[in-house]
Amino acid sequence: MARSNADHLAARIRLAEDYPYHRPPVPYLFDDGVVRPLEEPWREARMPVIAFGSNAAPIRLATKFAGMGARIAVTPARLRHYAVVYSAHFSSYGSLPATLDACPGATTRLCLTWLTEPQLLHMHRTEGTGERYDYVELSGLDLVVERGGQVRRAGAYLSRRGALALGGRPVRLAEVPTENCPFEACSQPAMLRRVHRLLAPQDSYATFMTRIIDADDYRRQATLRLVGTSVPVETSG
């Protein structure tokens, strides 16, 4: 039984550390939990929303849209003058999620999700719009979509808690390919360990992560302490 509990804990910590999760390197259709080649038109009556974190990953779309029969096009894209950095809060499953931040000259490879209006409203709820993130529509973007040309306007979720800053500067997600960005890059597993040392060096990493995942009050207090280190996120232009 003890071994089973240890394996379960390790799996939960691994889920936190695996953020932002695997996404296909090519355009794909999320079809009610099944990943299919993207062959149908995806722009008609849909809003492009920048997916810079886990929203581009089938595993998270399957959780967020479970039982809804959702069909969502996901397209890789290249966005200039922005970087994907850590937000100053914890997710309910223990990860340090992402946010966009202006970074002149940078080029970041991320994705777009193409959402119908009902899907967009549902995504707002899953993102905690008004609590964890603000939904904004960015215009004048230098955003090029694979197999889709240029997009000048797209939605995005920007952290209300700000960008997690170490040494006074945002830290970008090493898992997101980025060029010409002066921000330090750090992987999710390494960043979680750095934050553990910052917030609870007296506890083991496993104990800290268990409390972050299981104890809502502990997670909220930890987030408040991270917000104390944060800097506001900015938009380009």
Parts with pLDDT < 50 across at least 5 consecutive residues: none
Structural shape: globular
The SSE order reads HEEEHEEHEEEEEEEEHHH
The CATH superfamily appears as Gamma-glutamyl cyclotransferase-like
Helix tally?
6
Biggest sheet, in brief?
8 strands, antiparallel
Question: How many discrete domains?
Answer: 1
Structural class: alpha+beta
- N- to C-terminal separation? 56 Å
Question: What is the beta-strand fraction?
Answer: 25-35%
CATH 2nd-level architecture? Roll
CATH topology: Hypothetical upf0131 protein ytfp
Average pLDDT, to the nearest integer? 94
For this structure, what is the CATH class? Alpha Beta
> What portion of residues is helical?
25-40%
Rg over C-alpha atoms, rounded to the nearest angstrom = 18 Å
Q: Count the beta strands.
A: 13
Task: Describe this structure as you would to a colleague.
By secondary structure, this protein is α+β, with helices and mostly antiparallel strands. It has one domain (about 1-225): Hypothetical upf0131 protein ytfp (Roll), CATH 3.10.490.10. Helices cover about 30% and strands about 30% of the residues. Strands 1, 2, 3, 4, 5, 7, 8 and 12 form an 8-stranded antiparallel beta sheet that branches. It has a 3-stranded mixed beta sheet with strand order 10-11-13. Strand 7 and strand 8 form a beta hairpin. Helix 1 (about 1-15) crosses helix 5 (about 205-215) and helix 5 packs across helix 6 (about 215-225). The mean pLDDT is about 95.
